[in-house]
């Protein structure tokens, strides 16, 4: 079977992070669909890691062939666990957490390096977290226009504390090829931390001058890396 034939059987499954939903992938989705890829967007409840992994695995199971899992931010934790599914052929991290066994978002952010920006996460309310709406634009989406950033800040999805504390049982990046886009202007996950996690995972790395919302602000750069990963997975099969 030719690479192009295999490529047609690969499904790209996009997994969003915390505080947002899957609609942020809209432009990435359009670009990949226009290029002929089968693309699915997961809508995780972000209540707990176990729930989000289960929802993502159902999306994987619904695909007819191999899957390329793509995660942004906390979505990287989800794909690191869900990526152990036999159908998953590769992982793409977009300014994302790529934890090792036993790690969680909580453990990865507990000791920020000196001088690193502090995400404006408000104290938990009934077990859920939100970002300070007044600081959302600067921290999460500095390269988006103010109107869109305000909408994102005002439509935040509650992020369950249980999602942050959920730990990885077996990181899929140890057995799957991975790619990583580092957002060099990220003020939520420091770029040095992104480089460290991607190096540990052995990922193929590219950089993009974007905020944490790079998947919204730089959809072409994000889609290009995903397409590159899909082609590499197809060629390997």
UniProtKB/TrEMBL annotation:
Domain of life: Bacteria
Pfam families attached to this UniProt entry: Abhydrolase_6
Residue stretches in coiled coil: none
Occurrences of domain AB hydrolase-1 (ranges): 12-224
Name under which the protein is recorded: Alpha/beta hydrolase
Keyword field contains Hydrolase: yes
Keyword Lyase: no
Lineage of origin: Bacteria, Pseudomonadati, Myxococcota, Polyangia, Nannocystales
Entry keyword set: Hydrolase
GO MF, one annotated term: hydrolase activity
